[in-house]
Amino acid sequence: MYKVFANRLPIILTSDKNYLDNPNTYLLSSISIEEIIKKLKIKKEIFIYSPNKEDILNEFKTKIDTIKAAGGIVRNKDNELLFIFRKGKWDLPKGKAEKNENISQTALREVIEETGIKNLSIVKPLEKTYHIFKRRNNHYLKLTYWFEMYSDYTGKFKPQKKEGISRVEWIGVENLESVLPKSYANIRLLFG
């Protein structure tokens, strides 16, 4: 099962036959991305079914162009987490992969560019998130690879203004409950 968000609403990709009786379930083989988005606006949550459990995500990706991105959940020595504030939402630093760049290089580069942090290293890979966005009348699936990262940086941050980032802050884990409701659904997924 995969969760794909569009306009902060969930599209659940599933191969569980139990969902076939749900009126909000549609067959992946017979629905377009445009129809999915249209139905999602009305129903607020939909299920897309395919019997092919192993390949359901790849089957979905044949219907929409995919853009790869990567980012990080950065911790410091005090177990605080690095957040950015962009367009009225708390977010994690991330961005699109460039040509000839592996996904971990993308994650490191994007976190550094968006925040100005230094002394950054990858600890381990985390899960991926998926969301659909529209640009120039076309829908795209953004597949974001996430990494747990560490930095002992204590200097001043440099928010990447041209990306709409107005603040960069270390947030204590005890304060996550005040930050996550003002974040995106796929970011909240990363925190369980």
Q: Which structural class is indicated by helix and strand composition?
A: alpha/beta
Distance between the termini: 15 Å
Question: C-alpha Rg, in Å?
Answer: 18 Å
Overall pLDDT, averaged?
95
Total of DSSP H or I helical runs spanning 4+ residues? 5
Percent helix range: 10-25%
Task: Give the number of DSSP strands.
Answer: 11
Largest pleated sheet: 8 strands, mixed
Please give the order of strands in the largest beta sheet.
3-4-2-1-9-10-5-8
Tell me the strand percentage band: 35-45%
Low-confidence stretches: none
Shape: elongated
Reading the helices and strands in chain order gives: EEEHEHEEEEHEEEHH
Account of the protein in words:
The protein is of the alpha/beta class. The strands form 2 sheets. The chain has an 8-stranded mixed sheet. Strands 7-6-11 form a 3-stranded antiparallel sheet, with no helix packed on it. It is elongated. The mean pLDDT is 95.
Structural key phrases:
elongated, single chain, 192 residues, 8-stranded mixed β-sheet, alpha/beta, 3-stranded antiparallel β-sheet
Overview in brief:
This protein is an alpha/beta fold.
